[in-house]
Amino acid sequence: MIKNYLIIAWRNIIRHKAYSAINIAGLTLGIAASLLIFMVVQYELSYDTFQPNYKNIYHIVTEGKSPDGITYNPGIPGAATDALRLDFPEAKVAAFHLNYGSQITAPGANLAGDKKFTESIGVVFIEPQYFDIFRSSWLAGQPSVLKDPNMVVIDKSNAIKYFGDWRNATGKTLKMDNVLTLKVAGVIEDAPANSDFPFKVLVSYTTLNQHKNNYNFTTDWNSTNSNQNVFMLFPKGISINKTNQQLKTFSDKHYGKQGPEVNFEVLQPLSQLHFDTKFGNSIGDHLTSMATLRTLSFIAVLIIIMASINFINLSTAQSVGRSKEVGIRKVLGSSRPQLIAQVIGETAIIVISSVFLAVCVAKIALPYLKNIASVPESISLLNAGSLAFLCGTTIVVILLSGLYPALIVSGFKPVLALKNKITAASVGGIPLRRALVVAQFAISQLLIIGTVVAVNQMNFVNKADLGFNKDAVLVIPGYTDSVSLRKMQSFKQRLLENPTVQSVSFASDVPSSDNNWGTNFYFNNSKKDPGFPTFLKLADADYFKTFGLQFTAGTGYQFSDTAREAVVNQTILRKLGIQHDKDAIGKTIMLGSGHWAHIIGVVRDFKTNSLRETVKPIIILSNKKFESQVAIKLHAKDLMETTASIQKLWESTYPEYAYNGFFLDTNIAQFYKQENQLALIYKLFAAVAIFISCLGLYGLVSFMSVQRTKEVGIRKVLGASVTSIIYLFSKEFLVLIAISFFIAMPAAWYIMSGWLQNFAYRITLNAWIFLIAIAASVIIACLTVSYKAIKAALANPVNSLRSE
User: Fold this and answer.
1) Is the Cβ–Cβ distance between 113 and 166 less than 8 Å?
2) Where along the chain do its domains lie?
3) What's residue 415's pLDDT?
4) Counting C-beta atoms within 10 Å of the first and last residue's C-beta, which end of the chain has fewer, N or C?
5) Which residues does 209 contact at the CB level (< 8 Å), separation at least 6?
6) Mean pLDDT of successive 10-residue stretches along the chain, which has 804 residues
């Protein structure tokens, strides 16, 4: 019997090739798109889950409460590690200090042959206790080697990069930043791609204690450094609320009397580390918010639903042609369960075929997935998770797509079926099919609105006035050791001799970056802390000219090695209660326990971080020993040639350091990598959704044109025009699209308003954004319907009236 069902099912599929092709195409595209989204979500959710103690590991982070709200810092004071060990003896505690952009020099045949590498991430000063909490595979050495100063452990890939063979690494020496000479004491396996701890060069923590000044490390409780991280492994079953209360008591005890801003330590579970965007950059190279993953999952579900709606609509409409077959089967004794099983079987064949085709489509698209998501090229399409997803999707889609048509077909009354009394109007209920079309177009419009909003927001972000000039500014990270400082002015003069160089500035940081160097301060000779921190940009006098900062009062300072004069931005003045910029000139300001400096200038606010954040209060002053970056403003023409000549000059001036120049505008664009990827995802999957809805609409119109062949012929004989025939086919769908718009509009407004809240600076959701969605839907629907409608309208009425 099963064999007979399969044969009949296959014949029905072959007999109705067009409808089968539409269903298979829609399901294939929908399942392939959902599978790719699942791969991204599965990969992001897998971060750090391979750690044996994943559920019991916690990151200790700092929250600050002030009258302006809550601030978040992923780091804690340098003195906190030992204090945590004393106050929480039941937990294992480990600290590490991140160091971005360090240069590692491996010995070559001679000094000129030394190999220089800049490690943008992965260099860390680390305690051996780290390996009591996190698992790593040791190829050579053991964690205890990190107890001694000037020891380093490197991962396998870096060992090969530095020495050619990781087996040759142990016992060799490396230089770090031309300051530290380190002995390679061990080699570990590379961290997995889905790790938030991609450590490559692990220097003993005691080395940091011996070189505090070189790496701006302090054990002052009033200094919180985002690079200073502490993790704790607690016994199973701890209460997070109770432990956070203990940490508050701990903070009160060690911070002492605090001002209006109160800092305290809290637990951040390892399971939240990769997704908690309020604490800024992750330890690794990217963060993914849970909101983004929920959005992706929601899109995948919507696309599957759309493909299933196509199947339901076409199957119920097509079932009219099978009424006689069903009537005969019932007369011959077929039961309703047998008829349901047959229809479900036909659905299963189509769905399973679609799943296999979807896997092929996804396999072809997989190499391009890295362009729309932060996944490695080596990601595997078929694994235990994806196979479970495919199996689950297959079952759900078979039931979702096949059960309702099966109930409709099996419910035909034999007498009516054999007399051809069953019509398209009576099958499945016109209201239901209309509701399904409305649902399908509501989903399409939701994605269209999402696409328009995301694209416009990212265009706004990419073109926003940042308050400074970021174009054609070449930035070269450097160093502030005594040798480099002596060469600074001569290097600057030689740069300015190049006619394509407009200006050169040495600074600790560019105007807009991920860096947040904050401190407390005092204003106008007052001994009272204002109650909020200020953020620093240490730079020479040409900083303002190089970045085109605009003065609203006063001027910039003169060249000086130390901070005697300062320039502030407007935000810090407003927070201090000063409304007129010129009133700040001549006032004094002091950082921490430093010296008083006179404010001689006020610059217009510039964006200090990404546009997700509001402008921070900024103080700009000079301090030569921290001005490690050189920023070079260039003429826009011949950038490649100019950059090459600057690189050659750098390498001849600083032969001991690698060249790592980058253009500022490119670096700023990296702030919005995830948002730009999400905008691209919206574009791609909105296109997929539109295509699937068009397939379904085309199938329904095709069916209508066949069912209404005689009606069209009679209308033409009675004088109906081609336009009126096209309107006959289109009017119902246009009404349904209008209804779908009023459903999609509030949902889209709610979802995209929430997404825009991630940005301190954002577009307004104007009416035209929603009008674009309905206009696009109407145009798409008209184009889809018009082909079949025009064909039916132009058909010879004689042939139409002869058809049955």
Assistant:
1) no
2) 1-47+289-428, 54-273, 479-656
3) 53
4) C
5) 217
6) 66 71 84 90 90 92 76 85 91 91 77 76 93 94 94 95 91 90 94 91 94 81 83 89 88 70 83 82 70 84 84 66 59 67 78 90 86 78 88 87 67 54 50 74 84 85 84 85 80 89 90 79 85 86 92 87 83 91 90 85 89 86 85 86 89 86 82 76 80 73 63 70 72 79 88 82 85 81 71 62 54
Distance from C-alpha of 177 to C-alpha of 639, rounded to nearest angstrom: 29
Q: How far apart are CA 554 and CA 543, in angstroms?
A: 15
| Rounded CA separation 338/330 (Å) | 10
Pairing of strands 618-621, 534-538: parallel
| C-alpha–C-alpha distance, residues 539 and 626, integer Å | 8
Ordered DSSP codes for 721-774: -HHHHHHHHHHHHHHHHHHHHHHHHHHHHHHHHHHHTT-SS-----HHHHHHHH
Dist. CA 483–CA 485, nearest whole Å: 6
Which contiguous run of DSSP H or E holds residue 512? Answer: none
Residue-wise DSSP of 84-96: HHHH-TTSEEEEE
Residues 6+ apart with CB under 8 A from 488: 506, 624, 627
Residue 624 tokens, joined: 């030569």
Identify the pLDDT of residue 109: 45
Are 737 and 440 contacting, i.e. CB atoms less than 8 angstroms apart?
A: no
Q: Cα-flanking dihedrals φ and ψ of residue 28, to 5°?
A: -60, -50
Helical pair 384-410 and 290-318, crossing angle rounded to 10 deg: 30
d(CA 127, CA 205): 5
pLDDT at 676: 77
3-state secondary structure of 616: coil
Contact 320, 422 (CB under 8 A): yes
574 C-beta neighbours (distance < 10 Å), count? 14
State how far the alpha carbon of 75 is from the alpha carbons of 268, 720, 742, in Å.
Answer: 11, 77, 47
CA pair distance 478, 662, nearest whole angstrom: 12
pLDDT of residue 430: 52
CB neighbour burial string for 362-380, b if at least 16 within 10 angstroms, e if fewer: beebbeebeebbebeeebe
Q: 67 in helix, strand or coil?
A: coil
